[in-house]
Structures are given as structure tokens and as C-alpha cells.
Amino acid sequence: LKERLPSIGSRSVPYTGGDVKKSGELGKMFDIPVFDNPPSLKPSRPSSSSQHNSGSVRSGPNSGPMGTRPSHSGSIPKKSSGPVVPLQPTGLITSGPLGSSVGRRSGQLGQTGQLEQSGSMGKVVYGSAVTVLGEDLRLGFRVSKAVMWVVAVVVVMGLVVGAFLTVAVKKVVILVAVAAVAAPMVVLLTWNCAWKKRGLLGFLTRYPDAELRGAVDGQYVKVTGVVTCGSIPLESSFQKVQRCVYASTELYEYRGWGGKSANPKHSFFSWGCRHSEKFVADFYISDFQSGLRALVKAGYGAKVAPFVKPTKVADITKENRELSPSFLRWLADRSLSSDERVMRLKEGYIKEGSTVSVMGVVRRHDNVLMIVPPSDPVSTGCQWARCLLPTYVEGLILTCDESQNADVIPV
């Protein structure tokens, strides 16, 4: 016997002509409200005599259209496959900490770092995938504390002994000799404190670029190339510059004689930082030397030292305060007072397509090339020609040209 093809329905579906009222199932599929529903047809219960005498009932399930075969023309339940996350314009997917696998990072699609709009306020809040940086960079001298204490004790003892001999012998020559020996040390220390950051920038500029093609795992390299946003692009808070890999907004206040201080370290007649917002996330960099693309792990709380010079956005005084409603709105979103203070707003960012230099450690994990922050601070070494002591900096180093807007490459 030939197998009978399975039937799709027990009876033919009448043509409705596109009228939703004649087909309730069509309205359920497309969530169309139907107000005039037709009365439901309730089949009458057959009597016991008809059940015994009806041939269609006594026959098998394939004996006719009135058989008790299952029907597939019922309502179609709606299934939800979850929110569909669109792919970024760059086509690159990155997320997750360094310890997780690559498949897990690509599957998460940065759900923990999506942007969140905070209620009635216009301030954008990022998730844990975006690193929030502090106000100042941690720069220090690579000199042991024991040596510094020994030098300080010797200088103090020399001054005390010189003063005692001056009083006893009544000759100022001894005190002058001791001061002449201690003066160069003080000048050297003052010079290093003033030129510490500039000397570090010179060291970073002179550091040679490496090729990612020949870099081995664990090697400290400097890579220069074009940056591309990862799964979480950033945005500057005031100018709303989109698709950035690094964004900072800083509010400074000028303190005159007897004015209010912006921070505990704010001195008189100077500008002090009152509020700071600095964010950085994972991004890609395409090496100019080898053409390879590497993932820079700057998010998830990584230590990052950005050297990006901010630009002045607005100067707010008592006269022009009411002429800038956007600035007043920016202050209100952050619960900052807008009293009669002289304020200055600065913003710095690294936009997608900018040329950036990154200094970090190469890591190769599951055929993925990454640049991660070093575990130990990086020292510049003694710069004898510039009379600079060894200076160290912690974390991943990011440097960008000042004229970044003119060098942006469309990506």
C-alpha cells in the first residue's frame, strides 16, 4: 500500500478578502485589535444513539472529512527570540575581560557596557566595561626611598653643623660652603618636579615603533596606527562628539584672593579642577608597520595613562553666564552649583580614525592579538643630557597628536 501524504488541515480555510473581522487568527498574528468578533460556534453534543449508528464515527481516522483526525489550523503561538542587538557599523565585536574566552566575549556583545540614560537627567552612565579614570596621572621618580632619606638627612645635618661652626668660629665661610653643596641638590629636585611630565612625553616620542607581525607574547611594544571603536563607542559629555575611544570633560575654576577652592589642593590665583569625567573602553588599532589589527584592552577597570591634551570649550564669567543655557544644563545634570565663579570647560577625546600611539604588552590568546597594560610600572631611565631622574608611569599609555581633528581618517 502507498503511504498517504499527511494532510495539512481537516477542512479548507475560506478566503477572507483581507478582512480582519472574518479571520481572528490573522489579527492575533499581527496584534491587530478586533472589536466585532463573530460568535463562536459550539458543536452540539451528539446523542448516544447517533454515536452508535453513525458510520463516520465507527470508521477509522482516515475515513472522511468528519473523522477525528488532529487539526493543524489552530492559533499560532507567538515566540520571542529575545532582543536583537544590531551589529556595530565597523563590524567588530569585542567584550568581556581578558581572562574569558574569545567565544564568550563575542557572544556577550558588550551587554554589561551598554549606555544607560539616567532618567530625567541628560548624563550618560556607562557600565563596567568602560574604565573610569581619575583626575591626575600617577607619575613618580624611580628612586628608592632609602636613598632619598639618606640624602635628606645628610643635607639637614650639613646645614646644622655648618650653622654651629659658623656661630663657634664666627666665620660665614663654612655655612656658605655647606649651602653651596646642598644648593645643586635642591635645584636638581626642583628641575625634575617641573619637567617631569615633559621629559616623559619626550621619552615616549623617541621610543621606537614595533611591528606586531614579529612581536612575541609578553613583549613591551609601542604601536602607532589608526584606531577603531570596539563594541562600546564613547561620547563626549558636552559637545556630544560620537564614536570615541577616549573622552574627557574637565571643569576648572579660578580662585582669586579669598575665593572658594575647587579642590583641597587648589592654591590662590590659579585654576583648579572641580569636576572631571574621563572614560576609555576597548578598541582596535591598525599597525602602520605591519598592517595587523590588535585589540587594546583598555576597558573593565584597566590601568590607563592617557596623554591627550584637552582643548578649551567655553569660558564662563558673571557676564556671559546666562547666555549659555547648554552649559547651565550640563551643570544641573551633575548637581553642580552655578554661582558667581569664573569657570572654564575643557574637553579632550580620541575619535575613531585618529592616529594614536599605544604602549603596552603583547598577548596572543586563542589566535587573537591583544595589547594589555603591563603589570609593572614603566621607567624612562636616567636622562643625563636633560638632567632628569628616572620617571615611571603605570598602566597602558595612550598618546595622540594635538591636531587630531585634521588627521582623522574616515572609517
UniProtKB/TrEMBL annotation:
Region Disordered, annotated ranges:
1-115
Q: Which InterPro entries match?
A: At1g16860-like
Print the keywords alphabetically.
Membrane, Transmembrane, Transmembrane helix
Q: Does the keyword Transmembrane apply?
A: yes
List where this protein forms a coiled coil.
Answer: none
- List residues traversing the bilayer: 146-166, 172-191
Give the source species.
Answer: Escallonia rubra
Domain of life from the UniProt record: Eukaryota
List all Low complexity biased stretches: 38-59
Protein name, entry field: Ubiquitin thiolesterase
